[in-house]
Specification:
One of its GO terms (molecular function) is GTP binding. With 1002 residues, the chain is α+β, with helices and mostly antiparallel strands. 34% of the residues lie in helices and 25% in strands. An eight-stranded antiparallel beta sheet has the order 25-24-30-21-22-29-26-27, covered by helices on one side. Strand 21 and strand 22 form a beta hairpin.
């Protein structure tokens, strides 16, 4: 038996502790304080005391008004997101509210007032009782405890209940006998019995006396159970009929009762009315409240009433439809249902006429949901159905649409989606757009003969084919062309006055032909002496003020690795000076410079340098150049030839005059106003200064503080320097400057433009970044597939992993191109990472993970990077000359080549006879005809010039003495290991195997 403290009970019922202690004391329950525990029996005694002290039991059980129960619960609901998204959790709070309407029982004369829509309410209960019941709020815990106690009390008082049941059964039998001759009873009495409204608690288990009440027939709304037989109407007990709670509710119930009355058979109603005067004799003695006067029966009725209320609350079925419950007959409590076998035969005569109506209204089996199909509730709320103890069904009055329409219909046709496909798209992104799994895309690609992974980038055409293969429609997406945006910005610059500008001259030629020395003489500086190895490895941009005007020079490297750098120089120039050494003539890079010049369509001036040398031959140079379409004016051509000497300065003045003459003929003009545009000549990363870019201004005036977009990088110019390192505030057309402040190092050759604001610059830069990333990713995927297929075809290929760091972007690009050209079918160079700037800890860590060699071109590693490299054994190599780096990589690749195995014949012996030797088998007596026969060398046995055996020379003797070698013209005995089939006339060939290292061709 569960116990609870007084303090806890006061919190549950909502009453003060002092009031509860006083009530316990009045009820005879001994407790010492609020912390004492009380049993279920004591709680029941307290409840009975409160009911008795409130005035009358009828007021306790039939209190007017309504009781509202509220309950709130919290739970979590998981909702799935869209395609490619995870699920999310939503907190759901459920609030339930249940209102129980109570009606007072009728007075003694209420049975005859059938025409009244609502009876007079009973006397109001005392205010103390109303407050007490309101505080209790029909608590769930007390209800359950009361139900358990009532059930146990029922067992203990079975004898009293049995006696009361027998007495009621006798009264019902007498009533049924008196009902038979009554045929002219007014039908309104049946209506009175039908208009009885019972609360949900009273429907479950009413008081014991209501078991003797009879109804003429079940209502049309009810589904009768097998045990629900129609009972005779007992009009002799008017006090037991409950009154409605209010007049409107009673009016609402009256039409339903009338409907039930019309559906009931007429003989039955007449019999019920005729039986009215005879039923008053067969009644059990009850008081004004409708309870038995016998104390034992009274306690049983009170317990049954409490049990019914507890059961109703325990089931927790709140009414969501805010309507009064339907009127229903009051069934007998469980304690009084034992003698029902005796009551059934008496009720059968009155119930027989109602059977046709029951059958007509009987519904088919409805299943658990209460309907022969999926229910769709119009107001969005659920419907619940409960069964009483006697099989009665209760349904809340929600409007239910029992149609067969579903909330979700299966699509009858496949869904065809229109998908916009950009220039490149990843497989996972394509799957998300098609609302399918990535595995389905890969499966479709494999069916098309294409191997792919979930992260592989697809080109636009392939993606459209895949979309159409899967039954959808692919649309070419309108690409956000950043170039068109830039073009629009250039068009919107406006019309400005065009003024003459200085020419931009690019000096090109073969390495060591004196390009930088010639420019050095023009600039009156010593640039060439400062170059590593005496060669130029960067584009040098300078401008020189001459008496006739300003000339801007671009000095390009002549090494073979700088092809792209020379091509950029030719595109950015107005005039090209081709420097050719008079003592060396036309060389490979000279030919390349001519091709770049012709493709750019710019004028060409040939400077024949080193004219001061004795072996100089200018005519030879002219002849060689004429073979490539460069013909001197002296020979009737269009190209200007000038003989110069970078050492003595001979011909330099004539060269400058020729440059200015050509520029005047070209009529070079540019605007000086408006936003500036230009070209990135070179870019590098300097410690403490960040990204430094050499920019050649082509249009407008570049000012410090401008927002600049250079390729995929952008930023505000923090500082501008000229070629001598002096800060300047602005630069006009054809002037090269160094710019600080960009977000990164742009690629050489990228266009430069001043933007209106940072937002536009950032948008275009991000678009270019994304395009570069997609292109790079696609190239990596293609390289991986090519590598995989090459491994499958040719076996394992040796790979040299290299991490490359350079000082400027142009040199880095030249190195990468040169190193990739060293790869062959057997060995390959893999550049795991490359960048501009010094070697950092991150570079060393990456090189350690990929087992790569770190090569720095004009850069060095910092202290922490050197420490980590020494600890992990990573090799750091520094270079200042580009061909030294390329040669080292070539030698490393040569070491990865498998050595070549070569065979060289050292001797030949002819078999003259065969004899047996002890322990050796057949011994061949031979005469050495060529070379030298050495013991231990591999041999071949030839018969008729056909090799029949390959083995090893095991024994070599001369005159029974073991010897190490036998020379030509000498006889000897040769024992071949594991071979005895030697015949006279055979030849034994002796040879050696030599491993020869292979090298890559230069």
């Amino acid at each position: 038996m569960s116990e609870i403290t007084v303090k806890k009970l006061s919190e549950i019922v909502g009453a003060p502790v002092e009031t509860l202690l006083q009530q316990m004391k009045d009820a005879g329950i001994h407790v010492n304080g609020a912390d004492d525990s009380i049993t279920d029996r004591q709680k029941l005694d307290l409840l009975e005391h409160i009911r008795q002290s409130s005035g009358s039991t009828e007021e306790t059980t039939a209190k007017t008004g309504k009781i509202t129960l509220k309950k709130r619960s919290n739970n979590e609901l998981k909702l799935s997101g869209g395609a490619g998204k995870g699920s999310r959790t939503v907190n759901v709070e459920v609030r339930r509210k249940k209102t129980i309407l109570r009606r007072n029982q009728n007075t003694a004369g209420a049975a005859q007032e059938t025409e009244a829509p609502a009876a007079e309410p009973a006397a109001p209960t005392s205010s103390s009782r109303t407050e007490e019941l309101a505080k209790q709020n029909e608590s769930e815990r007390i209800a359950r405890e009361q139900a358990v106690l009532a059930r146990r009390e029922k067992e203990s008082k079975a004898s009293e209940a049995k006696a009361a049941a027998e007495q009621k059964a006798a009264a019902e039998q007498a009533t049924s006998q008196a009902e038979t001759p009554a045929a002219d009873a007014p039908p309104k009495e049946a209506v009175t019995a039908k208009t009885e409204t019972v609360t949900p608690a009273e429907k479950e288990a009413p008081t014991p006396e209501k078991a003797t009440e009879a109804t003429p027939a079940p209502k049309a709304e009810e589904t009768p159970a097998p045990k629900q037989k129609a009972k005779p109407v007992e009009e002799a007990k008017p006090a037991k009929q409950e009154k409605p709670a209010s007049e409107p509710e009673a009016k609402a119930e009256t039409p339903k009762a009338d409907t039930a009355k019309t559906e009931t058979a007429q003989p039955e109603t007449k019999a019920a009315e005729a039986d009215k005067p005879t039923l008053t004799v067969n009644k059990t003695k009850v008081d004004d409240n409708g309870l038995p006067t016998d104390p034992k029966a009274r306690r049983a009725a009170v317990a049954a009433k409490a049990r019914a209320e507890a059961a109703a609350i325990f089931k927790k079925r709140p009414s969501r439809a805010k309507v009064a419950p339907k009127p229903a007959p009051a069934p007998a409590p469980a304690a009084e249902q034992k003698p029902k076998e005796a009551a059934k035969p008496a009720a059968k005569p009155a119930a027989t006429p109602a059977k046709p109506a029951e059958k007509a209204k009987k519904k088919p089996f409805q299943g658990r949901g209460g309907a022969p199909g999926p229910l769709h509730i119009k107001d969005g709320r659920g419907n619940r159905k409960q069964k009483g103890k006697r099989g009665q069904q209760r349904r809340q009055e929600n409007t239910v649409d029992q149609s067969t329409d579903h909330g979700f219909e299966m699509p009858t046709a496949p869904i065809v989606r229109e998908v916009e496909i950009p220039e490149t798209i990843v497989v996972s992104e394509l799957a998300q757009k098609l609302a399918v799994k990535g595995a389905d895309i890969i499966r479709a690609m494999m069916g098309m003969g294409v191997m792919a992974t979930i992260n592989q980038a697809l080109d636009q055409d392939t993606a459209i084919l895949i979309v159409e293969e899967m039954g959808h429609k692919g649309i070419v997406a309108k690409s956000q062309d950043e170039e068109s945006q830039v073009a629009d910005l250039i068009e919107n610059i406006g019309d400005y006055e065009q003024t003459s500008r200085p020419p931009v001259v690019t000096i090109m030629g073969h390495v060591d032909h004196g390009k930088t020395s010639l420019l050095d003489y023009i600039r009156a500086s010593r640039v060439a002496s400062g170059e590593a190895g005496g060669i130029t490895q960067h584009i040098g941009a300078y401008h020189v003020e001459t008496p006739n005007g300003i000339v801007s020079f671009l000095d390009t490297p002549g090494h073979a690795a700088f092809t792209a750098m020379r091509a950029r120089g030719a595109k950015a120039t107005d005039v090209v000076i081709l420097v050719v050494a008079a003592d060396d003539g036309v060389m490979p890079q000279t030919k390349e410079a001519i091709e770049h010049t012709r493709s750019s369509g710019v004028p060409l001036i040939v400077a024949i340098n080193k004219i001061d040398k004795p072996e100089a031959d200018p005519e030879k140079v002219k002849t060689e150049l004429s073979n490539f379409g460069v013909i001197s004016e002296d020979w009737g051509g269009e190209d200007i030839f000038v003989n110069v000497s970078a050492k003595t300065g001979q011909g330099v003045t004539e060269l400058l005059e020729s440059i200015l003459l050509v520029s005047e003929l070209l009529e070079l003009k540019a605007r000086t106003d408006g936003p500036a545009t230009g070209l990135v000549i070179e870019s590098r990363l300097e410690k403490g200064r960040g990204a430094v870019s050499t920019v050649l201004v082509q249009q407008g005036t570049l000012k410090r503080g401008d927002m600049v977009l250079a390729g995929s990088e952008y930023g505000r110019i923090r500082a501008m320097l000229d070629e001598n390192g002096k800060p300047i505030n602005e630069a006009g057309p054809s002037i090269p400057v160094e710019v600080l402040g960009l977000s990164g190092t742009p690629s050489a050759g990228e266009p430069v433009m001043v933007m209106e604001n940072e937002r536009k610059a950032r948008e275009i830069a991000e678009m270019r970044h994304n395009k570069e990333r997609e292109t790079r990713f696609a190239a990596q995927q293609a390289a991986k597939l090519d590598e995989m297929f090459s491994k499958m075809k040719d076996g394992e290929k040796s790979t040299l992993n290299i991490m490359l760091k350079a000082d400027v972007h142009g040199s880095l690009e030249a190195l990468k191109d040169s190193l990739r050209k060293l790869s062959t079918d057997e060995v390959a160079v893999k550049i795991v990472s490359s960048g501009v700037g010094g070697i950092s800890e991150t570079d060393v860590s990456l090189a350690q993970a990929s087992e790569a060699i770190i090569m720095g071109f004009n850069v060095r590693a910092d202290a922490s990077a050197r420490r980590i490299a020494s600890e992990s054994g990573i090799e750091l190599r520094y270079y200042s000359i580009i061909y030294e780096l390329i040669d080292d990589v070539r030698n490393a690749l040569s070491g990865l080549l498998k050595p070549e195995l070569r065979e060289e014949m050292t001797g030949l012996a002819e078999v003259k006879g065969v004899f047996k030797g002890s322990g050796f088998g057949a011994i061949a007596g031979c005469l050495v005809t060529e070379g030298v026969v050495k013991k231990g060398n591999p041999i071949r046995v030839l018969r008729d010039n056909v090799v029949i055996f390959e083995g090893e020379l095991e024994s070599l003797r001369r005159h029974q003495d073991d010897v190490q070698e036998v020379r030509m013209g000498t006889e000897c005995g040769i024992g071949v290991k594991n071979y005895d089939d030697v015949k006279e006339g055979d030849q034994i060939e002796i040879y050696t195997r030599t491993l020869i290292e292979r090298t890559l061709d230069k």
